[in-house]
Amino acid sequence: MTSLGERAHEAGIAALNSTLLTGLRPAVRQLDLAVLTGIAAFLGEAGGAPSDVAPRHAWIPGHWRAALAAEGMPAPDGRVRRYRRAELITVRKTIDAARQALGYPPELTRYLLDSLRHLPELLNDQVSPQSLLFPNGDLDTAAAAYRDNSINRYLNAAAVEVTRGLMRDRVLELGAGTGSLTADLLPVMDGRAIDYVFTDLSAFFLESARERFGRHRFLRFEVVDFNQDLSDPFAPASFDLVIAVNAAHNALHTGDLLAQIRNVLAPDGSLVLIETCHEHHQSLVSMPFLLSGRKERRDHRAGTARTYLTHTEWLRALETAGLKPVVDLPHPDHPLSAFSQRLFVAHR
């Protein structure tokens, strides 16, 4: 009998429609180095240390310099060298070529180049990272990053197959944001007597979700901060399925969050978790700003500039919280693993 993980993987691969996978690893690397070179060029112009930096972002240039040092990219004297115009033109071309090879739409190129262009304004808080990710409230750029690409098509299709196999009727989605997975799950759930609670901390995302998904009468929308006690809005064992897509890393203590998720799950309930397990250089123009100024992390990342838990740390955290991992995709040796995004399914 085919296992749940095998069926999920097959569904994910089928969703790629024969997309070529052989060039993914080098393309991820090319995109990482191209974006990091763009950051280096900015630091080079600033003499290695920008002067006009908002206090809450003061740590970010050092985080960039550490990434450059790890790649051996600083100049011999320890300062970041200045880049020629021809080199920067090559950077732009490489970003777009790698973007295409990885199955991202053109919006991602525009977003990365806009972010690089606005690094000075991002650092001094004249431009917000949200204004670049959601220009004029539009979700197309965010969809390019979180939905309309090879890895998210794979992960979403695999997660839908998992959900279909579990057939859960009381669903809680935490940090649902743009609804990147929700949009694929809802058609599978139509026609069933279920209760689906779509939650996020942001009223902007909830209003957008109401407009997009309001026709699904089984949906409820609630503002929930999962860094607070989930037992306040939700009773113990009140859900069969909890979903968290690229959200759980925002927890101040991921172990505490997972323990709370276990508490609101029914005895035979399941968690569907999609998470990034490595900070790629391409995210250095966005994630540090999105997370900057928030409360100090209290888990493995305490005292560091890390955004994500590693693959191994997530598996251990799930087990420690009393959640048994039964699906872990894509397989480590599969080309899609180059994206460092994973689907975990765990049973209480």
UniProtKB/TrEMBL annotation:
Instruction: Please give the PANTHER family that the UniProt record associates with this protein.
Output: METHYLTRANSFERASE (PTHR42912)
Q: Which organism is it from?
A: Actinomadura fulvescens
The name of this protein is Methyltransferase type 12 domain-containing protein
Any Pfam family matching the protein: Methyltransf_12
InterPro entries registered for this protein in UniProt: Methyltransf_12 (IPR013217), Methyltransf_Superfamily (IPR050508), SAM-dependent_MTases_sf (IPR029063)
Q: Where is the Methyltransferase type domain?
A: 172-271
